[in-house]
Design goal:
The structure holds two protein chains of two kinds. Chain A is of the alpha/beta class. Chain A contains seven helices and five strands, in the order αβαβαααβαβαβ. In chain A, helix 2 (about 20-35) links the parallel strand 1 (about 10-15) and strand 2. Chain B has a single domain, classed as Translation Initiation Factor IF3 (2-Layer Sandwich). Classes of the chains: A alpha/beta, B alpha+beta. The interface between A and B is medium-sized, with 20 and 17 residues.
Amino acid sequence: MAEEKQITKKLSIIAFSGDFDKLTAVFTLATGAAATGYEVNLFFTFWGLDAIKIKQGRSPVGKGFLPKVFGIFMGGLKSAPVSRLNFAGISPKIFRYLMRKNNVAVLEELVDAAKQLGINFYACEMAMHILGLQKSDFIPEIKDVLGVATFLQLSEGGQTLFI
Amino acid sequence: MANIDNTYAAKSSSGDLGVYYLDITKEHCPMTFVKTKIELNKLQKGDILNVRLTEGEPLENVPKSAKEQGFNVLSVKETDTKGIYNIEIEK
């Protein structure tokens, strides 16, 4: 009975945003769901790709001049801005401080937990193409590079969120 | 409740199983049950994980999610410190 229930427990999240607060929401939901027996699929696209780059700071990742410039501006997980009141990057630092002080897991810890829980990480083929990114620019946990059709197949029968 | 007590009695007499401890009293959602799950993943079947947690959200959700995933919750007991509980989960 318990096993039957687990099969239908599935959460798929389209991680579109590269914002610190929204990514925190993505990884909080993802790890919480995985820890309670859900199969979890994370589909990173556009700004969300910042979360899965090997280089977590600002660096010229991507093929070609424009993607490299974009790469510097976009940065990675460590340079993710907050969606409101960013104050040129001061707010994420304050958030990290407050979260540590209050013993709430910061983004990096949640990402680490997501890896340990065996959450499925996928990258969007189309967004990677625009930004000149390759699978090798991402953390090795990226299981595959996908398009819409495959994502729909993977998420079928479960819940899907767009963050 | 009687069922849980019986399982606990049967296991504690076998003696040769690994017993592990995890303190999540300082954690918040979702790390309370995330850390519990990660720890349970590392254990062998039959090992016992003692989780120290606070009342409220962790006390409600950690045993519930463990049960839902087919683990045995052997006991839930309040410790000497008020509001802090110890639960035993068998993998």
